[in-house]
Fold:
Amino acid sequence: MDNTAASRLLEALVPIVRAAGAAVMEVYRSDFAAREKADGSPLTEADARAETLITSALLELRPDIPVVAEEAAAGSLQAAPGRRFWLVDPLDGTREFIHRNGEFTVNVALIEDGEPVLGVILAPALGRLFLGAAGVGAFLEEAGQRRRIHCRRPPAAGLTVVASRSHGDAAALDAFLAGRKVAALANAGSSLKLCLIAAGEADLYPRLGRTMEWDTAAGHAVLAAAGGSVRTLAGEPLHYGKTGLENPHFVASGPD
Structure:
């Protein structure tokens, strides 16, 4: 995909993701209930509403590109449907949604040949929308303004490390960070951790626990467009379309 096509597709995703965010916020403001999925993770009406809206809109926008969305795919954990496909997490951070702390996101990414080439992430309760594509760059929309964002070089004072608010393993994180100069450690929910690195607000996100491809794809795309990377603990680039759609442990960071 050339840069012009990527830019047009990225812009076409923004109203789709914002509409899904509005549907999520309708539920967020209501007296909603959560139920438990087979894997023990929570599910709300917001997940279902947003997934239905996004899937329908993506198939209308590009009928030639199949959609892999969390709630539809989670029961089967199939391999990805070909070299190009959408990955959708309609509500990443459902626990944050239930706890009403605002740290949840709507995520859409395009995968090509195992790489996340384009992504849009909306944090509707925080009023922040992140978007990025290979060859186009990464951007943040907030307060009615859009600006380009870039990863930063690690400050001399030390790294700002972000970790999962709901899925942390403190002992594993401490062991991983041993020997590194850390200035601050912050917890954040959902794919916002990847976006904070893309925006130059953090430096390192070690994920030493289970994630699925739809959890990371959109944030990975934004981070890569901002000059960062996501690698396995062995130093290999994180790829998509794996059988089972489950990620290994990984580290997201800005430039070395």
Notes: The CA atoms of residues 44 and 210 lie 21 Å apart.
